[in-house]
Amino acid sequence: MSYPYFSIIALSLFVSLAAVWDCAFKKIPNILVFTGILASFLLYVLDKGASGVSNFLLGVLVGFSTFFPFYFFKGMAAGDVKLMAMVGGYLGPLGAFEAALLALVAGSILGSLILIHKGQLARFVKRYWMMLGLRTYIEPEPDDASRQRFPFAVAILVGTFASYLWKPFAQ
């Protein structure tokens, strides 16, 4: 087995554990993310030598910076940003960007499904339509589903796997 296969297995394991943990405890442990980043660094160096370090660093930076604005504007938790940085460490800069975009699509779909399940999609759309017209923030109602924490690690998991599945079709 070569190092790229170890990378796929390690990334799958770390992202899957993060998704399960996020669903169960509404948090992604730092030790899991930082262990995953360290493992991706070691696998990159073993596979590509010193030349792999820049690709690893760029991947981490792209993964982090793609999700950081969502954290900055309180639309995402810090654990999700760090998890995407870890994904970038395995996938490199282009792979991190693809996985992040696919995770955002997956998150939008999963979030919409939650709103539909709770019967609050119309309320959500109405609130955002009013905010758009008024150009001001409208606080959600106390029982609003959009106040609930969303385990976004699940969307990152889906986006990461989708980016792997996307590769054969993108060429």
Question: What is the mean pLDDT?
Answer: 91
Number of helices: 6
Described by strand count, sense and barrel closure, the largest sheet is:
none
Q: What is the CA-CA span between the terminal residues?
A: 25 Å
Give the number of domains: 1
Order of helices and strands: HHHHHH
Which stretches are low in confidence, meaning pLDDT under 50 for 5 or more residues running? none
Strand content: under 5%
Keyword list:
171 residues, mainly alpha, 6 helices, 80% helix, 0% strand, elongated, Prepilin peptidase, transmembrane, membrane, Prepilin_IV_endopep_pep
Would you give an account of this structure?
This protein is an all-alpha fold. The chain has one domain (3-118, 152-170). It contains 6 helices and no strands. It has helices spanning 3-25, 30-48, 51-72, 78-117, 121-134, 153-170. Helix 2 runs antiparallel to helix 3.
List the helices and strands and how they pair.
Elements: H1 3-25, H2 30-48, H3 51-72, H4 78-117, H5 121-134, H6 153-170
Helix pairs in contact: 1-2, 1-4, 1-6, 2-3, 2-4, 3-4, 4-6
Q: What's a concise summary of this model?
A:
The protein has 171 residues and is an all-alpha fold.
